[in-house]
Design brief:
There is one protein chain. By secondary structure, this protein is α/β, with parallel strands linked by helices. The protein has a domain at 4-129 and 211-283: Alpha/Beta hydrolase fold, catalytic domain (Rossmann fold, 3-Layer(aba) Sandwich), CATH 3.40.50.1820. It has helices at 42-48, 75-89, 101-112, 138-153, 163-173, 179-189, 215-222, 264-267, 269-283, and strands at residues 4-10, 13-20, 27-31, 53-57, 94-99, 117-123, 190-193, 196-199, 229-234, 252-257. The strands form two sheets. Strands 1-2-4-3-5-6-9-10 form an eight-stranded mixed beta sheet, sandwiched between helices. It has a two-stranded antiparallel ribbon with strand order 7-8.
Length: 288
Amino acid sequence: MEPESRYVVSQRVKLHYVAWGEADKPPLILLHGGRDHARSWDRTALALRDRYQVFAVDLRGHGDSDWALGGNYSIIDYGLDLHAVVGEIGRTPVTLVAHSLGGSIALQYAGTVPENVHAVVSIEGLGRLRTGSEHRPAHERMREWLTDMRDLAGREPRIYPTFEDAVARMREANGHLSPELAHHLTVHGVREVEGGYVWKFDNHVRSSSPYEFNMEDARDIWNQIRAPILFIQGEESWGKQEAADYSAFHNYRTETVEGAGHWVHHDRFDRFLELVEGFLAEVSGTSG
């Protein structure tokens, strides 16, 4: 079963997203991580579409959304894009389920427009924000950014001679993936070019702004969130958080999933879905 493709323009960037389910059900938005795409959520969308109208977004520079002219991919731009999608859906509050970069976007949006958000599930979405002691001088950050942007401008996308080569790279990036899931993620993650296949994402999404989204700003925004939050992380992940990282939040709980790395929703899908469904039933005041 294929979802319906839809589009919305944000900041002159044409964004692609897909819709699953009926419009008489509450809206739920899925946000992928960096260098990923909306169709990575297909299993989750299919599992939830009987209770929600589910929308999975291709972030700018990813999937079938436009690349940003000039390569502008800051957290505030992504937040504006989410606001555009919410406005296009036309119904609030929305539930947000998001991974990694998508989780960071979801948390920032939930703190900026708290009245628009019913609940948040964030899979390793806090990011690696610098504390005051780690904050680098602005001139150093700016020089590094200038170098990075010049390097990215001259970087050509890697061409994989065959589709199977691209699938192999997908499995190399996450050893937990089954052959079937790696194939599915690759089908929707590559485009065919002369000589083989390239990933759809813009290499400029690897860049980061020299004007850091620092811990002080993050805590101010997170402190405004009123929606309940479920934080999920993988026991084997490089992105695990410490208890102190959650101190700015109010109504939240955390779950660590054994046998999973950074992509918990891929690595242990059944356990991930169990946690999400239980949490959503609880915050919706239902038994299932």
